[in-house]
């Protein structure tokens, strides 16, 4: 029974759900609209983030001058969504790992149990800090995308973690980056680290051509043709869409970032647009890399050695 549960996790993102609900993600785990008593429990916890409820209770209108304004919706239209589950058979962490890999990924916050709740304080604080404006257009999510969570879950739980520990580590590390605010450089450096974990081996000291930059550049050019969806270089870097040049420039950016150099987006790094743009591109790259690694772990393990 759908209502026979004793746990539910709040979906923190503001969503425009175009799917038929409730939707079973995996056995005993249902994506659905929150019931009134659940909404109240969620709101009680969100008092530490008083503006957070705007994302769930206000309709957003884009004005001609580019500004956005919100108007309170009737309570039956509020965007509070949850994943309900049985704590005795909880696979919530792997479901969350799977949801991280959607193009429009989903983040879970407070997980409510009958007698209490469980949550990652750093992840929740970071989410609401990074979304401090709350006047954001809701993400759309369809039946197909909810079904993709199921597919991703099966790939994650079916992975031989002993044979492919770097893939398992990448899945977990990618999730952990959600506890790091977008304002710190460590987050971007963490993204580069995850990509390197999946694609590179330690450079051979007797081979000057075996650098991490060369490995990433050549391997990403190869893999971009194999991904589940196209990695759209031209969308992120419209004046600089050639993959090989993009990765070389990105690694120059990474080097300066790691060593405290000045990043000038007006001149030297203008083709990379901005830190936010780089971060979004790296996130999409990691999602596609992990999805490919989960489907073809042996091929990626062989590629890593090259």
Protein described:
- By secondary structure, the chain is α+β, with helices and mostly antiparallel strands.
- The protein folds into 2 domains: 7-152, no CATH class; 160-305, no CATH class.
- The chain has 12 helices and 10 strands.
- The chain has helices at residues 36-45, 54-57, 92-99, 121-130, 143-158, 165-176, 185-199, 212-223, 233-236, 243-258, 275-295, 297-305, and strands at 7-11, 15-17, 23-26, 29-33, 58-62, 68-72, 81-85, 108-113, 117-118, 139-141.
- The strands form 3 sheets. A 6-stranded antiparallel beta sheet has the order 3-4-7-1-8-9, sandwiched between helices. The chain has a two-stranded parallel ribbon with strand order 2-10.
- A hairpin with a 3-residue loop joins strand 8 and strand 9 (117-118).
- Helix 6 runs antiparallel to helix 7 (185-199) and helix 11 crosses helix 12.
- It starts with 6 loop residues before the first strand and ends with a helix.
- The mean pLDDT is 91.
Structural class: alpha+beta
Bin the helical content. Answer: 40-55%
The major beta sheet can be summarized as: 6 strands, antiparallel
* Unreliable stretches: none
| Tally of individual helices | 12
Mean pLDDT: 91
Q: Radius of gyration in whole Å, from Cα?
A: 21 Å
SS elements, strand count: 10
Write a compact overview of the structure shown.
With 306 residues, the chain is of the alpha+beta class.
Keywords:
306 residues; alpha+beta; 2 domains; six-stranded antiparallel beta sheet; two-stranded parallel ribbon; 12 helices; 10 strands; 14% strand
């Amino acid at each position: 029974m759908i209502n026979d549960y004793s746990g539910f996790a709040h979906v923190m993102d503001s969503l425009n759900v175009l799917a038929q609900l409730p939707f079973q993600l995996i056995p005993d785990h249902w994506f659905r609209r929150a019931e009134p008593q659940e909404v109240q429990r969620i709101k009680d916890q969100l008092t530490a983030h008083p503006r957070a409820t705007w994302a769930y209770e206000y309709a957003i209108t884009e004005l001609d001058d580019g500004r956005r304004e919100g108007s309170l919706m009737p309570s039956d239209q509020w965007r509070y969504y949850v994943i309900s589950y049985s704590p005795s058979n909880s696979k919530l962490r792997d479901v969350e790992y799977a949801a991280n890999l959607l193009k429009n990924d989903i983040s879970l916050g407070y997980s409510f149990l009958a007698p209490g709740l469980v949550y990652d304080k750093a992840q929740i604080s970071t989410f609401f800090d990074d979304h401090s404006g709350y006047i954001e257009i809701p993400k759309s999510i369809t039946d197909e995308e909810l079904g993709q969570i199921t597919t991703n879950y099966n790939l994650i739980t079916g992975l031989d973690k002993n044979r492919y520990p770097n893939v398992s580590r990448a899945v977990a590390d990618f999730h952990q980056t959600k506890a790091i605010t977008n304002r710190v450089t460590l987050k971007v450096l963490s993204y580069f680290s995850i990509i390197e974990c999946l694609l590179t081996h330690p450079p051979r000291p007797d081979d000057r051509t075996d650098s991490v930059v060369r490995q990433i550049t050549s391997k990403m050019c190869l893999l971009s043709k194999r991904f589940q969806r196209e990695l759209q270089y031209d969308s992120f870097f419209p004046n600089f869409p050639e993959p090989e040049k993009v990765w070389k420039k990105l690694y120059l950016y990474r080097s300066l970032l790691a060593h405290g150099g000045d990043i000038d987006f007006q001149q030297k790094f203008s083709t990379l647009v901005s830190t936010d743009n780089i971060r979004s591109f790296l996130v999409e790259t990691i999602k596609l890399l992990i999805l490919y690694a989960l489907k073809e772990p042996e091929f990626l393990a062989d590629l890593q050695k090259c």
